[in-house]
Each structure stands twice: as C-alpha cells, then as structure tokens.
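Q: What residues go here?
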C-alpha cells in the first residue's frame, strides 16, 4: 500500500512510499482510509523533528475515517463494509491512573499516529475497542475529525458553562472553529471569537458567532472593542493559540470569578514561551486557570453531536488533497495563514462512501 513514512522525525526523513500492508491481529479491524486529516500540533512536530511522543519508523495520522476491509478472527462488533472511524489513544489499563478510571492520564498510553502506525496510509489496522460506526448522515470527511471534536468536547466538559455565560474564544484555527461552534450550541448566552486572519473569522460567523479581528502589532485595538462591549469581562476565555503574549494580556478580560481555559500548548519545548500571571489579580478577583487535555473514549458523544448538527467539522476544512500531496498540504498548514484544516483522500474521493 501507499503511505507517508517517517523513518525518523523531520521532513528530510519522510516520504510518500510503498510499505507492507498492516498485519491484522485477532482483535484488529482493518480500515481502508477515505479521509485523513493533518493535526497541526502533532504532525508539525513529526515534520519539524521535535515530537516528544513520536516513535519511529512511523506512519503518522491520528484523525481518519474509512470502510472496514477485513476483521480479525475475534472481532464481533464489526463486519466488512461498515463505515467507521477510530480513536487514537490506547491506554494501558494497568497504571495508577488507569486503575482509578482516569485513562486520559495513562502513564503508558500508546497512540495511533504517534507510537503506532496511523491513518496517512491506504490501510490502517486498529484494535476493535477503539473503532466506532459512523452515522449514515455523517460524511467521511466530518467523521475523520471526530478525534478533534472529541478534544473540544472534553474542553466543554471541563468548562461546564453556567446558563447565560459569556465566552471568548482566542483563535479560529481548527480547534477554535470547533470550540466556537460547540460553545454556541451550549448553555452560553454569548460567544465571541477573535483571530488575526479575517477569512477564519468569516467561516464561523456563518454559525452566528460574533467575531473581532486582532492586530498583532496593536492588541489594544481588539481589547478596547471587547472592554466597551463587555465592560465586566467574560465568564470564560478559551485559548486555542498558545500565544503567550495574547494569553497574558487576555486574562485581564475575565470577569470577577471568571475562568481561563488553556486548551492549546506550544509543542516545541525548545521554543516555548511562558505565560505571566498576576497573582494579585487571581487572588483579589478569584480567577481560575485550568487546562484541558486530549480526549479519551468520547467518540459516541462526539459523533452524536456531529449527527445532530451541534457542530459541523467540515466548516474547518480549507483543502482536500490526494495523499501524494501530503508534503504540499503540510506546507500550506505551516505557512499559509488562511489554511485551517487539510484533509487527504488516500483511496480516492470520499463522496458517496
């Protein structure tokens, strides 16, 4: 089969090439991939050679969907021809956190596209326990983004917005796009999103979300607009940019008793910048700063949200390419500010699948 293979981290060690078909274990489901997406943080780390999770040689790609090609002899829940997507994370089930039922914190987690071969290939073999059927009304492209929407779903659970909350989303890339949509369909009364790229704001404005353009050289411009419109600030601010300066400045836009949610992070530890926190501000205004990590086992809820139209993942897609254009797609994600989500079709068009 054809696949993207990283012999080691770094673009110079990667190629679109022929590799052996996956070996099917007794509990595996073999999926023919019809849509596979770039996750900018994870795949940029492979591409740049600074991944802290990657184990090589590796076929990356942890967001994908396809059709069951074959099943292992012990598989009972799926049959050939099923439309499916798959979770990326495979907790060990034995460590301290797994025994406590907190599998998202597993000390020995394995992940497809990181330590196990993933979906930037024509075929991928996945443990049955991580595979989920796609509802008939959900497209292959939308389903391929279930893992990303699941991470946003986990963030929504962390926030648990009170009825009538006012919410600010920092950044409208793939995660910001999804989070803004999910916040809009939640108990929140008002959702505002900011970004430095007008085309990204235009996309989510179609979902009834208020948007404000940011000038990187003059952050005070959008801050002035927000303070005028929301003089008491926001109940929640969710950051999807990992921009330390923007985060530091935006904390002051919280209401008393407000919560700042750290969703994004700087993947390259060699270039990471630090957020500065004003301890007096946190103490006197009783603010909260929380983190939101990756999702685990949120696919049923997430697919239901997509099926019911609570969130439209395809709104974040800006380009669909064949898999042999992987490196061009990566360059667009990394260098074109208008690119949000790039989807590949390793086995030809996904329409009608």
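A:
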């Amino acid at each position: 089969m054809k696949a993207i293979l990283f012999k080691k981290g770094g673009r110079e060690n990667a190629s679109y090439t022929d590799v052996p078909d996956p070996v099917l274990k007794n509990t595996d489901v073999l999926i023919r991939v019809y849509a596979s997406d770039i996750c900018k943080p994870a795949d940029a780390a492979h591409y740049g050679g600074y991944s802290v999770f990657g184990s090589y040689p590796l076929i990356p790609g942890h967001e994908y969907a396809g059709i069951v090609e074959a099943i292992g002899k012990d598989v009972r829940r799926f049959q050939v021809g099923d439309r499916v997507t798959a979770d990326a994370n495979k907790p060990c089930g034995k460590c301290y956190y797994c025994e406590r039922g907190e599998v998202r914190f597993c000390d020995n987690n394995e992940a497809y596209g990181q330590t196990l071969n993933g979906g930037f290939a024509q075929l991928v073999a996945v443990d049955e326990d991580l595979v989920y059927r796609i509802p008939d009304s959900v497209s292959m492209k939308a389903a391929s983004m279930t893992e990303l929407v699941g991470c946003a779903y986990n963030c929504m659970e962390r926030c648990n917005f009170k009825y009538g909350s006012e919410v600010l989303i920092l950044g409208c890339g793939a995660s910001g796009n999804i989070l803004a949509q999910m916040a809009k369909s939640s108990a929140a009364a008002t959702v505002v999103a900011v970004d430095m790229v007008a085309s990204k704001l235009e996309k989510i404005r179609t979902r009834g979300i208020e948007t404000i353009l940011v000038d990187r050289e003059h952050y005070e411009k959008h801050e002035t607009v927000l303070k005028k419109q929301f003089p008491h600030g926001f109940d929640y601010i969710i950051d999807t940019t990992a921009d330390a300066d923007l985060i530091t400045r935006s904390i002051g836009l919280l209401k008393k008793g407000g919560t700042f949610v750290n969703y994004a992070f700087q993947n390259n530890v060699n270039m990471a910048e630090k957020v500065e926190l004003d301890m007096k501000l946190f103490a006197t205004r009783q603010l909260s700063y929380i983190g939101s990590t990756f999702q685990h086992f949120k696919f049923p809820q997430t697919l239901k949200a997509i099926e019911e139209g609570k969130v439209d993942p395809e709104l974040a897609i800006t380009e669909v390419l064949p898999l042999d254009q992987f490196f061009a797609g990566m360059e667009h994600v990394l260098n074109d500010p208008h690119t949000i989500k790039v989807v590949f079709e390793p086995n030809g068009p996904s329409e009608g699948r």
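A: Context that may help when evaluating the design: The mean pLDDT is 95. Residues 146-159 form the longest helix (14 residues).
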